[in-house]
Design brief:
By secondary structure, the protein is mainly alpha-helical. It has two helices and no strands. It starts with 9 loop residues before the first helix and ends in a 16-residue tail after the last helix.
Length: 84
Amino acid sequence: MSKFRIAPGPVAAHAFSLGLKAGATLGLTVIASLYWFGHINLLLVGYALVVLFPVYLVFVAAGLSVWLGYSKDSTSLRPVYRRQ
């Protein structure tokens, strides 16, 4: 029995974009609120924005891609042939 895979459509692309924007907004809100309430200083805010925030966005994008069906596995690979 073979797997039947349906490619994600434009609604999934919109949901991915919206989810990435929501995740970025949430991350920036957390960093800003930690600074506002005095839990971190300005140096740590810069570190969080430059180093931690991009890594967080990669994890958000990876989670959204798996959830929305963009993830691929070895069954979706096709052989590639070079013309001679």
